[in-house]
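The records we work with from here on pair a chain with its fold. Taken together, the tokens spell out the fold as the letters spell out the chain. The record below shows the convention in full.
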Amino acid sequence: MRINELGKRVVTPIARIIDGWSEFTGYACAIGIFAASVIVVHEVIVRYMEVPTIWQTELAIYLLMMAAYVGAAYGLKHGGHIHIDIITNFLPPRPREVLLLVTSVLGILIAGVIAWYSWPMWWEAYEAGYHSESLWGPPLIFPYLMLPLGMTFLTIQYIVHIARKIALVRDLFKKPTRA
């Protein structure tokens, strides 16, 4: 059995699991955005009725943080991240895909470093029992969890993304070029 065939059999189920998890987190974040919208509308209505609120703004912000960080893997999976493609659009397929592979490697390095350094920050909030200084005062372990969790999910999704890019680049260099 060829190594490439073995790699496809081993990587494909893992890639499917990672893609499925990214899909799940994307839908969970969409629900979080919807919930944040409902909370903000609720806040507007009760303020109009001159009823004081202490939790709506903060919870809406935490839900949007979840969407931004935890939803990043979903965005990568679906090509939803911001691309500056003014130069890459003019490149032929081979150099374009190599450049995208290089930028993906830089992306995984950045996401991995952020994940690595943000987990201790979350742990410190957990051990010290940090709470928000607002009147509501929720524990900060939940909002502090969004960054390391999201960057970890993004790093894992980048592994699948880079594996697919490598396979694409390999295929592009196997095909003969037209003159």
